[in-house]
Design goal:
The chain is an alpha/beta fold. The chain has 16 helices and 16 strands.
Length: 465
Amino acid sequence: MTCLCSSGIVETVQYSANGKQSNGHPQHRWRLITRWLEPGLGVKRWIAVLTLGTTLVGLGMAVILLDVYRAYPNSDFLAILSLRALPRTFRALLIGGAGTFIVIWSIYGLNRALLAPYLRPGHSIVEAVSEHRRLGRGPKIVAIGGGTGLSTLLRGLKVHTGNLTAIVSVADDGGSSGRLRRSLGLPPPGDIRACIAALSHDEALLTQLFQYRFSEDEELRGHSFGNLFIAALSSVTGSFEHGVIDAGRLLSIRGQVIPATDSKIELLADKILATTSEAVRIEGESHIPDIPGRIKRVQLEPNDPPAYPLAIQAILNADMIVIGPGSLYTSIIPNLLVPDIVQAIKASRAYKVFICNVATQRGETDDLDCCQHTEAIAAHVGSPLVDLVVANDRIPEILPEGIQAVDPSLDANHFCPLYTADLIDLSQPTRHDSGKLAEALIALLEEHTGPLEWVINGDLSSLQE
């Protein structure tokens, strides 16, 4: 079976009948051994130190043994032990080689014993070390949004870097999140739960666990396990934000997930009704899409919540800031209505990108094109925030009724350039493909900043100035 390793080398890996990786193939074993010498693993320096230490120990032992050898020059036991019958050069090579083999074998066995509890099934130590070092050298990327769009983005980016920060909206007030918000006074954990699952190592299993909803017990009916898990950690740690951070730490996610603010906020929307053209105010994020009409503006109550400090720190230290994809008015813009976050984005030297949605959303972005998406953000924050707009240019042939593909074009005098590519998930034509989207973003960042630690091949010919 052929697989692509983290270093980009195609390896042939044998699997036994029970599906576990078999390292018995000599060629595969040799490749695993030589991978320890790859640049960037931080291993060769310690091999040199180990060699020096072993040499010094050997010299110390040699001084003692030399005195014993001189004291009993005719001892038959010492003659056999020192291989006196063999040529001196051959003896040195044989004893030195045996010692080197024993040292390497013992260190390898010790590493396996110590690291076995932390290795995923089917992964070798060198693969785990290589992946850890590669992801640790990845660019610092901050993703701002919420809902399915943000978790899709994180699912793709975690393959390229471990320096990820997801800043998530806490304006949700529906479903299990809304019930916990009303009963416990906690910010809604739903979007945060999805992002934590997306950044985990065993995403498939954790997503099923976190998405599991209780149906038998009347008291827990409709609650998801992930929401209850975060709520319990919030109670144990004493605050919601610490509960979220500790949840990510417990699950060993690649990166961190933090709320945009730790204040209790509510999302309000001014909407022009489709039937009467009357302007109404809608209270509550979950109610906004249910009323047909065009959204003029959304706002938070209170309107100036403080940003969570770690969010500001991550934005200022980022190499790239990605806004979206996600529900424009109920997931993306609520984060940008936190004044400190917008100021930090403007002050950051990061490369700033807005990802436009693949398709419109009922009751929220009906009939809006890519240009209107970006203008809606600029209207709410007072000025353009991003350096580039990324949009999908592969229009799906079939979409659910009432949903249109977002036109991936901008006006000639638009305030920032546009990059278009095939970013769609063919199995779910209203969503981005996480792999395509992440590769496009890494390629764009490399185009902007210069070569990264590894090369992502991307076609940037569609960049429109």
